[in-house]
Amino acid sequence: xxxxxxxxWRLAATPKGGLPLAEDxxxxxxxxxxxxxxxxxTETLYLSLDPYQWGRRRSGVELPGEVCHGRTxxxxxxxxxxxxxxxxYVFNTNGWQHYGLSGEGIxxxxxxxxxxxxxxxxxxxxxxxxxxxxxxxxxxxxxxxxQPRSGETVVVSAASGGVGQVAxxxxxxxxxxxxxxxxxxxxxxxLESLGVDSVVSHLDPQFFQKLKAACPDGCDVxxxxxxxxxxxxxxxxxxxxxxxTLCGVVSQYGNTDGQDPRTVWQAKGQPFFExxxxxxxxxxxxxxxxxxxxxxxxxxxxxxxxxEVRYKEDLRHGxxxxxxxxxxxxxxxxxxKTLLAVGEDPTR
Length: 348
Known about the structure:
By secondary structure, the protein is α/β, with parallel strands linked by helices. It has helices spanning 51-59, 133-146, 162-173, 185-193, 207-214, 228-234, 261-276, 289-306, 322-330; strands spanning 5-11, 25-31, 39-48, 72-79, 89-92, 99-103, 115-117, 153-156, 177-182, 198-201, 219-224, 238-246, 279-282, 313-317, 337-341.
């Protein structure tokens, strides 16, 4: 490994546009990092692409010149950490690069703790999907925050996306009537195959009317991933004492008006929230890792193993296509959980 170079995507500058441009990223190669004591060198096998990464870049949390952040599944190449050995598979945060370090002194962004993966439990790619932070996000927002009860109506926006597809299935398992909102016909058909009771396309000219018809008893729980006109359609349907979890507002992430999308979302909804005594939860998965991750992983592994929860991955190939795949994910030109195959997965 000593003579190999490490290819990376770095942030070229704090983005000025509403959506990613090619010039926002720069391709760099540098010498392979060497792990120090209590560190390990890992090869990236899968890279997760998620909307929150764009928020980090636009807001200046991620600085120009830094390796673009991203959750990863990796294989240990060299370990100086007790309990990890060459060939182990791990969840970590290598970001947009072929190789990275984990362990002492390496940023975990507060809550993305490295952990060893067992390929016999589930495909290792699921550690950045249904059996990772993405799945925990759906679980935390729906089950922990909103506590759905059997017979209630749960509405999920971006329901075929990485988080949404898990949320609708958890709601079904809780005995709820589940209404999914998606776009293209193939996404609608996929959600129907998951047992979603009713799926409405936000592209339909009659979207508002059809969503209302799909919720004859109103909406008791709303899992928000989109904002915009989808949120406008849901607001009048909220029942007394409804619960809302605000996971994201992806339709607003390309805004260039300088306003915070979540603040705008809250202001628009406030009159409805007050009138209907709605409880609104702001969802940040990092708040749930320490208390709920172990319970979630055990429970979700059981669901996945039994076929009670299924998942769809939008798998792109090659680190070189990361910027384009990232753009596609933000604009909805994806289907399921978006991830890149960066290295060869010997377990697949």
